[in-house]
Task: inverse folding
């Protein structure tokens, strides 16, 4: 049940991250691969792995899960100075998440949930 909740939250965050970009400088900072984990607050153990690959052509490959349970979601993204907007490839409906980049960390805030990802490429 908790896993479903985390998947829904992550899907909302991802859907919040896709389209075309207005600011090349801001866009260049986010281009690359970011990795993080969903942690169970009771056991302090990772429940799922998260990997987001932002590409120069405004495509976002989002992967969640471990091994054979890994799922890939392809999205479009655009960003401004405060928000990442995402949409599914064949949809015009956008979601958004507030974001910040601090050193090699991408922090996403969506409806009270905060996720920190580290840049790996």
Result:
């Amino acid at each position: 049940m908790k896993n479903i909740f985390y998947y829904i939250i992550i899907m909302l965050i991802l859907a919040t991250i896709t389209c075309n970009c207005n600011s090349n400088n801001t866009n260049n900072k986010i281009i690359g691969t970011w990795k993080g984990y969903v942690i169970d607050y009771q056991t302090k153990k990772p429940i799922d792995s998260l990997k987001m690959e932002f590409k120069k052509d405004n495509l976002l490959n989002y992967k969640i899960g471990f091994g054979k349970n890994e799922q890939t979601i392809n999205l479009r993204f655009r960003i401004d100075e405060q928000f990442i907007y995402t949409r599914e490839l064949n949809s015009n409906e956008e979601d958004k998440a507030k974001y910040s980049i601090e050193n090699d960390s991408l922090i996403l805030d969506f409806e009270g949930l905060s996720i920190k990802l580290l840049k790996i490429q």
Summary: The CA atoms of residues 35 and 51 lie 4 Å apart. The helical segments are 2-15, 24-30. Strands lie at 32-39, 46-54, 59-64, 71-79, 83-88, 95-102, 105-110, 113-119. Residues 2-15 form the longest helix (14 residues).
